[in-house]
Design brief:
The protein is an all-alpha fold. It has twelve helices and three strands. Helix 6 runs antiparallel to helix 9, helix 7 packs antiparallel against helix 8 and helix 11 packs antiparallel against helix 12.
Length: 264
C-alpha cells in the first residue's frame, strides 16, 4: 500500500471515531446522580481473576472471619474439597498467603493459620492508616457507580451482622469492605502491603460484642459519604481516622479487660 493510501486510511479512521455517535449505555446516568467522567466511568472492563486469586481470596476470608482459627492445619485436600478446584491453584494460594503472613509453613509440617501477635501494634496500625488512606484516595479516582454500590452493600451487611452480634460474618464483611477499596486503587504493591499488615493483627484476641462491633458503622458511613462527594482528600482523611480509631478502641478495650482480670 502506498504512503498516500496509508495516510488516507488513518485519517478516515480518526474522523470516523470522532463522528461516531456515543453509545447510550456508556453515558446513561441514573436519575438523582450527576455525571462525572473523572471518577465514575461506567464502561470499565473488569480485571481478570485467576483461580489462584479466587482460592487465595476465599482462604483470607476464612481466616479473617475466624472460620479457620489460628493454629488450624491447612491441607490442600481441605481447600480442594471446599472450593472445588485442582491442586495447582491451591498450592500457589498457600505460597502467597505464607508470604503475606496469613499462614505459617514449617518445613515438612504443612501449612497452619498464623497466630497474630500483640507486639508492634502501634507500628502496624500506623502503617495501616497511611497505606489504606492512600489506597482509598486513589480508589476515588477509579470508582464506578457499581463499585460504590458494592462498598455500600458490604457496609450495610456489616451493620446488620454487628447488630445481630454475628462476629464471624462481621469480621468477613469488614474485610470485604476494606479489600474492595484496596483493589479499586489498582496499586498492586500497596495492595500486598495492606494485606500483609492486616494479617499481622491478632484478631482472635479482640472483643466482638454487638455494641463494640457497631462502633465501626458510622465510620464506614463517613468513608462512603466522602466517596459520594468525590473528594479524594476527604476519603483519605476518613479512612486514616477510621483505622486509627480502631486502634484506640482496641487499646481501651484491652486496658479494661486487663483491669477486670486483675480485680478477679
Amino acid at each position: 500500500m502506498s504512503t498516500r493510501r496509508i495516510r488516507f486510511a488513518i485519517m478516515h479512521n480518526v474522523r470516523s471515531r470522532k463522528e461516531a455517535p456515543a453509545s447510550p449505555a456508556s453515558h446513561a446516568v441514573p436519575s438523582g446522580h450527576r455525571s462525572s467522567p473523572t471518577i465514575f466511568s461506567v464502561d470499565r472492563t473488569p480485571d481478570y481473576v485467576t483461580k489462584k486469586d479466587l482460592v487465595a481470596g476465599r482462604l483470607r476470608e476464612m481466616i479473617l472471619s475466624g472460620e479457620l482459627a489460628p493454629g488450624t492445619k491447612i491441607t490442600q485436600q481441605l481447600l480442594i474439597d471446599r472450593l472445588t478446584v485442582s491442586s495447582s491453584p491451591v498450592r500457589e494460594a498457600i505460597r502467597e498467603l505464607e508470604s503475606e503472613g496469613y499462614l505459617e509453613c514449617p518445613p515438612h509440617h504443612g501449612a497452619y493459620v498464623a497466630t497474630g501477635s500483640t507486639q508492634d501494634l502501634d507500628e502496624v496500625y500506623s502503617l495501616r492508616s497511611y497505606v489504606e488512606a492512600k489506597l482509598a484516595a486513589r480508589a476515588a479516582a477509579n470508582m464506578t457507580r457499581e463499585d460504590l454500590e458494592r462498598i455500600r452493600s458490604s457496609a450495610k451487611a456489616y451493620a446488620l451482622a454487628s447488630r445481630r452480634g454475628d462476629a464471624v460474618s462481621a469480621r468477613r464483611l469488614n474485610y470485604q469492605f476494606h479489600r474492595t477499596i484496596w483493589e479499586l486503587a489498582r496499586q498492586p504493591i500497596s495492595l500486598r502491603i495492606a494485606r500483609s499488615l492486616y494479617a499481622k493483627l491478632p484478631w482472635e484476641t479482640f472483643t466482638y460484642e454487638s455494641t463494640k462491633l457497631q462502633r465501626s458503622v458510622p465510620e464506614h458511613e463517613a468513608i462512603i459519604k466522602a466517596f459520594e462527594r468525590r473528594n479524594a482528600a476527604s476519603v483519605e482523611k476518613a479512612m486514616a481516622g477510621h483505622v486509627l480509631e480502631q486502634w484506640e478502641r482496641q487499646r481501651r478495650d484491652g486496658s479494661t479487660e486487663n483491669r477486670r482480670a486483675a480485680a478477679q
